Automatic annotation (TrEMBL), chains A, B:
This is Nitronate monooxygenase domain-containing protein. Keywords: Flavoprotein, FMN, Oxidoreductase. PANTHER family: 2-NITROPROPANE DIOXYGENASE (PTHR32332), 2-NITROPROPANE DIOXYGENASE-LIKE PROTEIN (PTHR32332:SF20). The keyword Flavoprotein applies. InterPro entries: Aldolase_TIM, NMO. Gene3D superfamilies: Aldolase class I (3.20.20.70). Signal peptide: none annotated. The keyword Flavoprotein applies. GO terms for molecular function: nitronate monooxygenase activity. It holds the Pfam family NMO.
Amino acid sequence: MGWRGILGFDYGIVQAPLGPDISGPELVAAVANAGAIAILRAPDWECPDYLRELIRKTKSLTNKPFGVGIVMAFPHKHNLKCVLEEKVAILQLYWGQVTEDIVFQAHQAGVKVVPQIGSVEEAKHAVDAGVDAIIVQGHEAGGHVIGQEALVALVPRVVDLIGSRGIPVIAAGGIVDERGYVAALALGAQGVCLGTRFVATEESYAHPEYKKKLVEMSNTEYTNIYGRARWPGAPHRVLKTPFFLEWRNLPDHENEASQPVIGRSTIHGMEKEIPRFAGTIPNKTTTGDIESMVMYAGEGVGLIEDILPAAQVVKRLVEGAQNLIQQRFTSSV
Amino acid sequence: MGWRGILGFDYGIVQAPLGPDISGPELVAAVANAGAIAILRAPDWECPDYLRELIRKTKSLTNKPFGVGIVMAFPHKHNLKCVLEEKVAILQLYWGQVTEDIVFQAHQAGVKVVPQIGSVEEAKHAVDAGVDAIIVQGHEAGGHVIGQEALVALVPRVVDLIGSRGIPVIAAGGIVDERGYVAALALGAQGVCLGTRFVATEESYAHPEYKKKLVEMSNTEYTNIYGRARWPGAPHRVLKTPFFLEWRNLPDHENEASQPVIGRSTIHGMEKEIPRFAGTIPNKTTTGDIESMVMYAGEGVGLIEDILPAAQVVKRLVEGAQNLIQQRFTSSV
């Protein structure tokens, strides 16, 4: 027996689509097999054939449904077409406005649409477009953060907006364990979306040094110093590494385009140079000055104390939530 | 029957000490009579005789215990002495480090010490000094905000730190209704502290125009443009009023000391001029350009839809929490 599922999945737990390659087939299959909602991350450029390979590789590792996340700020028309052709369970969308047309196309293909939004206004647009669920991102989230408010106030406002329309609200940002999960449920959410916690798993494609830092470090900052040239106007939350603390006041006119190359990486099958201040986190293939690369993390990183198998993360959340509710709420109302 | 109380009070609900005069005897007595932890706000200057009058006036309005809040960034030695002499139930402290000596003196007088902190490090200092409970302020809070992280991640970290030492943790910031209350309990807190919700009550001493704005407006910003000369380095969260939006980029070198007077107010019995960019919210006595004065609010302000009697705020929180737990958690674990 588990905690209530949503969207046809066993649980209301979503693994956020994570940076290039981090939530690849291995992590996604592990999370899907555990009964949660796992999401591949589509490349930030048009490459539908590669994306098709990613999806099919994932299908070879699990019989369970899963999703694909697309960042709408980047070219994505052909990638989107591929996702619908492959009829994955969930199309996750971020950083761009969901249209009725996209929702219509997805529904024709039997794909559910789940945008991640950061404000009440954005939630309203998404609901009006006919989406199947909404991920509400709070300011406490790691990686690129569109949310300007914290979950404790933002989730209830979105829930009040959606009212009785039966669209699940999923809370994202700073949630790591069963306490965050149950808190989100209390706020009116029906599910939670976790990023940083899933980066710190055995199956994530993150560089071991990055995973180690997630366990060791506890503090983050909301900044815009990384990836300004490639994706301007996209602030993010990062670990306060020594490199970050040295450069956090990078002048506004400066960006990665004029910086020295500090490493190399294979990203979605392509060889890439990583300049200083690139928005590219180190993955398993990355070489060079790892400690000077961006390391995204949400505010909950101080609660991460170990690298776990992804299935264990899901299990702890579900069993932990049940125990917490039992101990704290069931006995003495 | 109520939700679990803390510190000898009926409930784990704290009314934050609010700006000069806002949580005066009338509001404090109303909250105390409702069974919650009500806190007078001591003046920001030494005036123990006036403070004694405030405490005694409150005692004339309620037989229930209540507290006094002192901002340690301002002169407070004599005020503190007065609070201990008057043996109020709770000494709330903010914006300064609690010492073992203060805790010892308070305990000698039978007064419990409850600091408001904004980080895990500050929580550790407070616990080591022997305090009776800790208010953890999240970044989503209104007024002056020392918290840099959101509650969803910060509360569990403080709870983990304090562990089994039996010291209640109280969550502050963005909490307005039973959803925030139960979420805080899920995160491991034993109580909640509400500011903005209590400003928007019938008994609060806030100017009617300020209360009206709290009902009408939904968005806030974390800023430092108000009160820079009087209390430097003290950022705050405010309503995004038209005045604020016009001046939010006030240059760093500018402050209220060189600005025109835009109104007058009686604050803790003293007549004051209010210059533009003063950190002084309009209270019932204030005249002048009310719309251009600072209006503190937490991120939860979008959930406030009415001006209520303070007792009604407490009742809704308690009954709402019980119903929410019953409906959402008790039936189907």
